[in-house]
Amino acid sequence: MINQQDITLRDFVISDKTRLIEVLNHPDVTRYLSSKIPFPYKEVDALWWINEGSRQGFVKAICYQGKFVGCIGVNPGEFEYQRAGELGYWLDNAYWGKGIMSHAIELITTEVFRTTPIVRIFAAVFEPNMPSKKVLLKSGFHQEAVLKSAIFKDGTFYDNHLFVKLKNRD
Fold first, then answer.
1. Name one Pfam family in it (predicted).
2. Which of 30, 90, 144, 161 is 20 to 30 A from 45 (CA-CA)?
C-alpha cells in the first residue's frame, strides 16, 4: 500500500491536458464511466474540462506523489435534492489497487460534508464493476439499492448499484 500523505486533491490546471487525453482514451478506465465523457477523448474535450467542466460542483484532480493520476467529484443535486450529491471518480489504471482511490474518496467526502450543506453522498455503480463497489464499502459507504436494467451503455443494459454515505448529524 501507499503512503496516504502522497495523495492530494487539487483543482485542474492546463498542464493536465495531455494526461487527461491519455488516460481517458484507455477503454479499461472508461468502460464503466458515464457516456457523457466523450470517447475518443480529444484535446478540445480536455480543454473544456479544465476550463469549464471541472469548475462545476466540487471536482478535483487526484495526485499521487505530485503526479496527476485521476479525478474525483461530488455534483450537488438541485431543488429538493440540494442536500445530496453524486460522487464520481476515475483513476489511471496503472494506479489501480494501491489504495489511492479509497483515500481520495475519504478526502473529498470529508471536505464536502465539512464545507457544504450536503448531508448525503451517493454513487451509482455498474453491476460488473466489483473494484468500485469494494472501494466504496472500504470508504464507509453502504449499498442502498439495486436498480434493475437502469443503465444502458454501448448497447448493453446494466443493473445500477447505489451506494450512500450520510453525514453524521448527531
1. Acetyltransf_3
2. 161
